[in-house]
Amino acid sequence: MNLQASEVLDVLVVGAGPAGSAAARWLAQAGLSVRLIDAQPIGRDKVCGDGLIPDAHHALARLGLLDAVMAAAQRAEYVACIGPRGGRVDVPGRLAVLPRRRLDEILARGALQAGADFLQARFEAVIEADGRVVGARLRCGDELLEMRAGCVLLATGAVPKALQAAGMCQRVAPSGIALRGYVHAPSQVGRITALEVAWTKAVRPGYGWIFPAPDSRFNIGVGVSGSHEGGRMKDLNLRQLFDAFVAAYPPAQDLMREGRLEGELKGAPLRCTLEGARFSRPGLMVVGEAAGSTYDFTGEGIGKAMQTGLLAADALIAQADDRAARSQYEAGLTALKPRFALYARANQVNAFPWLADLVIWRARRSERLRRRMAGVLEETSNPGNLLTVKGFTRLFTE
């Protein structure tokens, strides 16, 4: 790549995950000059459950990349909700699983195909002039580069270092933590076909999951929301929680006994509920999980990360003025906040797993309730209403 000191890009996107790559593709398709930056090469790994629920399908379709992703992904028809007593209800939806290494590669290459370019470099700091961000300092090997741009999009994920360097971090501690691994288990193909989410007392205040991935592999992990208090991590050991989940959930026992763990279990923080960071300042917008785009209750964040990236791109395309663009972007995030708040309310299930037993018991007897649960997946139903006084009343009347 020919890097010229005098070059001024329209947009510099820092972070080649779903949010950054979605924004870069959309902006490049609109004719803007875009450079996508990431510390890792294209197709880097990311600790994640890898589940693609309907909001991710919507974003991928808008980007024109849904067919490419689905050709590589493992399709699924249900999310299986399993309670502590073993009750299960299968919630239908448009679902798939694709390891993030492959998903992020498809998204980043989609941005390059649209006209963006890519540089493997590490973000160090923003460049400011007259109270406005005008670019970024990047480390590329032993070389320190300065790149100028009309706008910088910070799509750097849950680790707060870049947010702190850019003066955008309002909370260092994450919202939650997760641990996942990949297990190659041909014997489980056809036995585990849904995205299984299991609540057990052993994993309180979190949940465990097993998601079927391509090539006879399974993503297995545990997640805990509210993992930190007063800026410090609570007395939690993710590996112990993972082992407790396996011991308490028979399908996890079978998977780990009959399969082969590939590599190590890996942990990562989560930033949820559109909280913990400033969304913008002159010349800069924060998108994706850096802005808290992960749902508190489910830990799902791929679709909403892409959605925030597209909101930022739409604002930059529509508005020539920086203030107007930032105002449009922040208004878009504000419109999403009520839904994030509802998922935070539904997060009570993770702290009180007996609630999962109650909802599952009733859903097995009520087609209408199963439709409402499917609506939560499709974002046409209110997840918080399942866990209100009115919601509990409806559990016994529908």
Let me know the largest β-sheet. Answer: 8 strands, mixed
Class per helix and strand makeup: alpha/beta
Rg, Cα atoms, Å: 21 Å
What's the helix count?
Answer: 13
**Overall geometry:** globular
Low-confidence stretches: 1-5
Distance between the termini: 62 Å
| Average pLDDT level | 91
Task: Give me the count of strands.
Answer: 18
Proportion of residues in extended strands: 25-35%
Question: Oligomeric status of the shown chains?
Answer: single chain
User: Percent range for helical residues?
Assistant: 25-40%
Q: What structural keywords apply?
A:
alpha/beta, disordered N terminus, 36% helix, globular, 398 residues, eight-stranded mixed sheet, 18 strands
How would you describe this protein?
By secondary structure, the chain is α/β, with parallel strands linked by helices. It is 36% helix and 29% strand. The protein is built from 13 helices and 18 strands. The chain has helices at 18-29, 54-63, 66-72, 100-114, 161-165, 238-248, 250-258, 302-318, 322-346, 348-351, 354-363, 367-378, 389-395, and strands spanning 8-14, 34-38, 51-52, 74-82, 88-97, 117-120, 122-129, 132-140, 143-154, 176-184, 195-198, 206-213, 217-225, 228-229, 232-233, 260-270, 280-281, 284-286. Helix 1 runs parallel beside helix 4 (100-114) and helix 8 packs antiparallel against helix 9. The longest helix has 25 residues, at 322-346. It is globular. Mean pLDDT is 91; it is low at 1-5.
TL;DR?
This protein has 398 residues and is an alpha/beta fold. It contains 13 helices and 18 strands.
